[in-house]
Backbone:
């Protein structure tokens, strides 16, 4: 978000001109400021940001630990700045049964390997 590299119209207008630059809410140009402060798609999540910065000042959001924590929560819950604009599905924790040592480790030797030694 700080670098401007994200799934937003402002980025697309310069780097991916084939993509739409308007916001799904109807705003002509989708920008990070619009998404954080005004976009109706994220109204239900904006209070998360206001806890760190009453007026959602970008320097307070990106420049303080409290602001970054609020932004992280806002992004996770809202799905803002993702390609779909929707929250990502929860990922399952890795399963022990997929660990490599269960299969003899990463370095399983076979007869073909002997030729190279």
Residues:
């Amino acid at each position: 978000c700080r670098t401007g590299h994200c799934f937003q119209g402002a980025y697309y207008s310069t780097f991916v001109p084939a993509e739409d630059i308007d916001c799904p809410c109807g705003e002509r140009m989708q920008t990070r400021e619009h998404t954080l402060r005004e976009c109706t798609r994220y109204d239900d999540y904006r209070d998360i940001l206001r806890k760190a910065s009453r007026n959602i000042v970008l320097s307070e959001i990106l420049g303080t630990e409290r602001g970054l924590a609020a932004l992280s929560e806002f992004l996770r819950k809202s799905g803002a700045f993702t390609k779909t604009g929707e929250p990502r599905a929860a990922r399952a924790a890795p399963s022990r049964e997929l660990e490599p040592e269960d299969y003899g480790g990463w370095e399983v030797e076979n007869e073909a390997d002997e030729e190279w030694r």
Remarks:
- The mean pLDDT is 77.
- Residues 9-88 form one domain.
